[in-house]
Amino acid sequence: MPSRENILKALGQARQGEKRKFPQSFELAISFGGLDMTKPENRIAEEAVLPHGVGEPQKVAFFAEGELARNARDAGADAVLGREDIGALQKDRKQMKRVAEAYDFFVSQADLMPLIGKALGPALGPRGKMPKPVPPTVDPKPLLERYKKTARIRMRDQPVIHARVGMEGMTDEQLADNIQAVIDLLEHKFEQVFRQVGAIRVKTTMGKPVKIEV
Fold first, then answer.
1. Interatomic CA distance for residues 86 and 119, integer angstroms
2. Helix, strand, coil percentages in the chain from 3-state DSSP, rounded to 5
């Protein structure tokens, strides 16, 4: 896998692109050779907690009722939705899709999961955003803190992983820490797949990909 020196070098080169009037994100792309994407074991759907977050807090919605709903709201959830809200979304597909796109992660009180699966599964499932079930007694604060610093990592039809690893305003050292966290997670959990790494690249939103030498 790439050395820290090579990661920092590639980040420096990626910053040399044309400046934009908006803050660009940094994106990591890892491509693989010789993978059969029809095999389930070669598909990846993971979440990586980044040491320095993604540059701005991820948006997290909580499905909950009663005390857990109050606690989630107090802990800083970006939205708290109950049974009535789920029912309303089921009847309004456009709003359902807007909600699915508006939030990065969803967490749900465990006993609401069957209802969510039936009502919202068509919108959340294909986006890889089905909620993480939690007991009604859970403390939502650490969960929310974790998800607000989490990057979503997916590889489905094409043998390429894309992950957002930060923003322009972050230092190269912070970005390197985040990139290393993603690589370490994938290398540890998907050792067989990682033996077939073709190239690792980093780029800004509008910039050209820069290869990280391995």
1. 7
2. 40, 25, 35
Average per-residue pLDDT for the chain: 92
Number of domains in the chain: 2
Beta-carbon contacts of residue 17 (< 8 Å; ≥ 6 apart): 204, 206, 207, 208
* 132 and 66, same domain (yes or no): yes
Q: What is the pLDDT of residue 147?
A: 95
Do 114 and 125 belong together in one domain? yes
CA distance 60 to 145: 10
Query: Has residue 93 got a pLDDT over 80?
Result: yes
Query: What CATH code is carried by the domain that includes residue 168?
Result: 3.30.190.20
For 127-130, which contacts have Cβ atoms below 8 Å and span 24 or more sequence positions? Answer: 127/100, 127/101, 128/45, 128/152, 128/154, 129/100, 129/103, 129/104, 129/105, 130/106
Q: In which domain, by residue range, is 102 found?
A: 60-147
Unique residue bearing structure tokens 């990626």: 14
Backbone angles phi, psi at 174, to 5 degrees: -65, -45
Angle at 44 between CA 167 and CA 49, to 5 degrees: 40
Domain at 123, CATH number? 3.40.50.790
Tokens 């094409």 sit at which residue? Answer: 158
Residues 204 and 183 occupy one common structural domain: yes
